[in-house]
Sequence to fold (448 residues):
Amino acid sequence: MNTRDTIVTAAVAVVLGLAQVAFGPLYTLFAGVLGPIWVMLLLGFYYLPGILIPLIVRKPGAAFIGSVAAALVQIILGSPFGILALFAGATQGAGAEIVFALFRYRRWRFPVLALAAIGSGLAALVYEYFILAYGSLAWWIPLAYLGVRVPSSVLLAAALGLWLYKGLVMSGAVTAREGDDS
Amino acid sequence: MSRSRGCGALENVHPLVKVAVIAALVLTTALFLHPVPSIALIVVFAGHAIVCWDTIRRSLHILGPFAFGFFGFTVVNILGYGGVETVRYEVGPLSISREALFFSLSIFLRVLASVCMAVLLARTVRPGHLTAAIDRVRHRSSRLALLILVIHRLIPDVLLNLKTMLGVRRIRGVRGGPSTTARIVLNLLAATLRRAESLSLAVTSRGYALGVPRSAYRPPVLRRDDLLWAAAVLVAASGIIVGWHLSFGLDGFLAGTAEEASGIGR
Fold:
């Protein structure tokens, strides 16, 4: 990543980090209403930086650095998840990064983005398995957490990320690249 | 200039030291299922809140929804506990084991402790001081320093843009909703990306590059192409000068010979 890519990563991370901080109280309120399993239908929004930032920058490391940067913005803006958000951001970014690396950072169509979003969700689940001790729960609960997280990742990270990217291309803020999903 | 925006003993602690200590403490609570480390952190937070009531007062909007949301999670942890259960309590129609209660209470306290530490960090560290402290760390990565400085630079811009957009929408009478929120995010992204492009242009035109000391111009590197170009320019320039002299000299010579010839003729 060169200087321009780093600045663009930071800029997108600021907007997404701010959106996530605003989303935090809403998420916890929904958690109280829907319960901890169904609220994970909204969790995909937290994986958005790991999808949208590499889609714009298209460089190795963008998913990981972008997710960590968005988490850093959350800490600076006073997110209640604090340091935990930073660790979660790092693991989610690593999950998406692995998927993009498997495709050699050459394919940016929706199926790859969806796989990267699911990779983020899976990495986050592994992190939560240790932090929230899912190992002590009945076997079906972590499985339910995973099952609900997959459609959420596809919709709120991959589909929303692609919609935002297309909007940015249409607005002229981002130049369309070769291999874009039409 | 004070380092923090809170009060009490924590205000004079270096921001990075505070972040490192809080990270270590939160990770420690994650390593032990026993609730005592978590309770200790909550007590530290409560002690700070007693000394600085302002800290807790301004954080109620964060802690309130969290407590409400985590209640359901705790109930699922109690009912979905999968370990060995010995002593059971009958609570109305539910049968709850002592182990399940202990487990769910421990997890609740663990997350509450990390939230308390996050609030403490947010209320006792100014963002500017944190970014400045990271920037001054020796042997820091130039990419990390640039990333943090740009984040610090753009946060007020993005907040101002958001305020303007919301104000305009209010004046126009546009109702809120998920699609409106998504459009606001899109507009913010477009505006911030344009700001980032101009910032990137300004930074690179000042000679800043990753991997070299900050605020230093890039040292000129002499390449083979540069030498060839210089040689070509020198040859061309020499040719023009020599040719000019030769032509003027020839003219002069011709003029001189003409004069001489006319003189001889006279």
Notes: The helical segments of chain A are 3-34, 49-57, 62-76, 82-102, 110-131, 140-171.
